[in-house]
């Protein structure tokens, strides 16, 4: 083979024999960088494998193998008899490489409100560390029957011909949808066909599906004020015109809403246990709401997030149970009745909409696992779920009582509480004009979590309060934590 | 206590003692229906508990208890000394109840194209039944080390102070993000900080986040034609103007795109293994694409969906690895390298965007489970993931070879195939003007799945083909299946 004229010299490169990086990788990396950085120009000849091997003191096989890789990736071209050349047509940078600090394009102007920023930053700080006592909405995870659940999960994973390793049906597991329909009949007096149910990763994905499928940009959505934070942020971001409806002692103030915001496309409500005020919507209001929706061709989004936990009387039927017109989109979740990382929730929709919801569940990214769906179906079928709910209800009632007692007894100079009939949190109304966001921050520094009532509201609120979750804190720890809470509020007031 | 005047008579109601429904429930249900249906009018007096008990032949305690429940739910009001009355103010229906068949409000006009309907209906039929042979993108589930994975899952669920039962960090598990960053360095030559990674439920949720965060309505998105179906449908539904860019033998035709659709906001591409044509984007084209993006302030969405499976040479580095400007949003998934119902994927974004992606992951509905994230991190950390990929690569190469051989040998009158260098599917080009959608339908009836190439395309295609997945079918079954496929195509041609 004729010797071709000498190729480019690789200035400034030598093999580092002290490092653990293999020689192959060192040479390969150096050549790539030289080509991409413009030190080796398109069309330029590389040294022959023999020359380069000698020069660097490495085996010729190594050099050959690096060249072959570069050729296979398009960095270089081999011309028979002539040698190896840097590929033509590569748009490389000619100037020595300077990493310019370019303007980072900002995301488009989606509406993240200041309120949303507050809650997001507080959520972020919570989520990255461990959960601190009194964080709202956290179940008694220490009481969860984990070994039993693990058994159900393993069985679903392994025992059934591996069929749950695939995506599963577009609307979610048929077995789980049957179990949920039975549960809704027993616990919520709802008569729904399992085929009206679409499984989601939780309530939030249900809201995302509703926003994407049912709402056009600019559509008016009546929203409880104060109300569920993440649902509101989501609908705003999806382009809806979310408007605040005040809450009175029967629930949403429909008269106010009807006179201020005509023709809503949807109404978001938590009738069983208003989030966060805890009011149960009266029957009068429920029927009025259903009539309004019927007459105005409006959808009702019923978020039934913690209705399992009622401590006095029988749980009220869901609003959806009264709805003969099929205007109610009913949203349920297992994040609170089981645990958050189970990633399971569901939505009940009219038959005509099931197909759209199932498709959008696929398009927006299926969030629930077919394995978990099957495990949950079996867990419900065997009565484990109801058993767990009953046990939690007893535990939560007790924890609620202890927290209320401690706050009333030791902290009545700073807060006022009333035991809620239902749910997983209570409101501690702040006295002496303490600002709830300040109080929340100071308490978080002292290892006590809460959410300020004001972040649930669309506008400044008249009376500050902290939302305290009582379900995840063992009753034995409550007195000491309340003392600390009281002490911090006292310090705050005296500064 | 003075006897109040007699209350309403409950016409037509009697206790059914043959049914298993408790008497309490029967009475409770009858009264509710009468009130809501208007048979009992607001303000009307109910019979006294004594009267009603006598009349129905049930215990007075039962009647009392039903009345108390109705009062507690707002159906009725108790007036001391006067009796129990149907609540005032209930907006009930006055006419006898007729379930009217009301116009069901249709979802707003979101763009689901005919193409999308085709693929959706074929997906739906697949997902509701069992997976049939040659469905594209299905891993060899029978070869998945399920017992080992179950061990990792159980450990993550149980062993760690139950901390994975909560939501986990907004951007996903730190341990998993570290493992992914190391994997990307080893396998894809990418140097990314674990904090640039946001965990998703899979590639599709990553596209949803990108659409929601990065794209304004009407923004132009260059999209490979033919190209990934669900990603295109999603972006269209989210309001983007998705435009088709033809594929040549080096990848996307940038000249065509630049002259037809100036100033795209984003470019969607599958450079490692074009979906579905299988072309690897050349280095020349990669550099040109990166330069175009830099000069035009455009984002590149790199969908690296099956790059783990390359059967010849070393896998090419990701496009993202060449990107010094941080214009590439890199999307990866475990749906194919592990299994679909694991519900895990990720996106690599520039540091300035991490916070937005983490927040939107929460807002759109967190799809991945903190338990699964931890299990996956440990599975990767212990080298199990790479071991599994290597094993699958061997198996898939063999299955590819057998399928290609059988098709070339037995079915060459109807299809033409070329063994792909990478990925999980091959293209069987149809001869004799057979239409791919017809062929797909006929084969599905015979228990053979495929996807018609035409559903990947924006407009009618010149040459029909079927996309056949070769990874999930055991090599021993392939010859017989190919015979059946050949037979069906032969019949189709002769009709």
Automatic annotation (TrEMBL), chains A, B:
<dbReference type="InterPro" id="IPR036388">
    <property type="entry name" value="WH-like_DNA-bd_sf"/>
</dbReference>
<comment type="similarity">
    <text>In the C-terminal section; belongs to the class-I pyridoxal-phosphate-dependent aminotransferase family.</text>
</comment>
<protein>
    <submittedName>
        <fullName>HTH-type transcriptional regulatory protein GabR</fullName>
    </submittedName>
</protein>
<feature type="domain" description="HTH gntR-type">
    <location>
        <begin position="21"/>
        <end position="89"/>
    </location>
</feature>
<keyword id="KW-0238">DNA-binding</keyword>
<keyword id="KW-0804">Transcription</keyword>
<dbReference type="InterPro" id="IPR004839">
    <property type="entry name" value="Aminotransferase_I/II_large"/>
</dbReference>
<dbReference type="InterPro" id="IPR036390">
    <property type="entry name" value="WH_DNA-bd_sf"/>
</dbReference>
<keyword id="KW-0663">Pyridoxal phosphate</keyword>
<dbReference type="Pfam" id="PF00392">
    <property type="entry name" value="GntR"/>
</dbReference>
<dbReference type="InterPro" id="IPR051446">
    <property type="entry name" value="HTH_trans_reg/aminotransferase"/>
</dbReference>
<dbReference type="InterPro" id="IPR000524">
    <property type="entry name" value="Tscrpt_reg_HTH_GntR"/>
</dbReference>
<dbReference type="GO" id="GO:0003700">
    <property type="term" value="F:DNA-binding transcription factor activity"/>
</dbReference>
<dbReference type="InterPro" id="IPR015421">
    <property type="entry name" value="PyrdxlP-dep_Trfase_major"/>
</dbReference>
<dbReference type="GO" id="GO:0030170">
    <property type="term" value="F:pyridoxal phosphate binding"/>
</dbReference>
<dbReference type="GO" id="GO:0003677">
    <property type="term" value="F:DNA binding"/>
</dbReference>
<dbReference type="Pfam" id="PF00155">
    <property type="entry name" value="Aminotran_1_2"/>
</dbReference>
<dbReference type="InterPro" id="IPR015424">
    <property type="entry name" value="PyrdxlP-dep_Trfase"/>
</dbReference>
<keyword id="KW-0805">Transcription regulation</keyword>
